[in-house]
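INFO batch 0412 | record 1 of 1 | parsing
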Amino acid sequence: MNTPFDPEPRRPGLFSRLRASFLTGLVVIAPVGLTIWLIWTVIGWIDGFVWPLVPGAWQPDALVNYWLGNPRFIEANGVRIENPDWIRVNVRGVGVIVFLTFTIFIGWIAKGYIGRSLIRYAESLVERTPVVRSIYSGIKQISETVFAQSERSFEKACLIEYPRRGIWAIGFISTTAKGEVSERAGNGGELLSIFVPTTPNPTSGFLLFFPAEDIIELDMTVEDAAKLVISAGLVYPNGKDPTLPPE
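INFO prediction complete | emitting tokens
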């Protein structure tokens, strides 16, 4: 209860208000700025990787100057020098378009009979090379897991007691265990493979096999569960009430 003798609350000073506004603006700008910077950096990295592989006659500089009739070299006093009027073209992102077009073209060829035959022949040559064989097989396995089988994804998010009873962890149900793993586990019921991600990097984690009756499936989506893991529990699926399912 306030009395007439209570001192009036101090109003924040100008510096405090400016600092609060700055922090609020930083929260708004930082995600947008970092996203744009990351995309811009990745595009520049792809351009720097692709353009050295493109023949010089197909470079943007050469094409633009060819259309304008501007030669790369000229004769001056009997000496062949570079044309000072040569137009330099640096269009960021064109290398990404070239990369996507080339990748789609290679994928289209690889789906055909001739493409599959060439790939099998090339892989047979690689298999005969000791060092290259190990490197190629590892990279191929990773690529197939990440890209070629991208239609396979985690089915649901779940809760499991890990690493001991009474301690709960978020996991992702991947598949039903089959073969020797299911047979030798000594479990009479269904055995599920669960991926338990680490925080804040969910790409690393542990592969565990749990009986289906020991798993509690969650209503939240896999994406929401991943956000919860990445944020170390700070971002819940429902920001208004974490006890409710996702909106």
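INFO post-check: The longest strand covers residues 168-176.
INFO record closed
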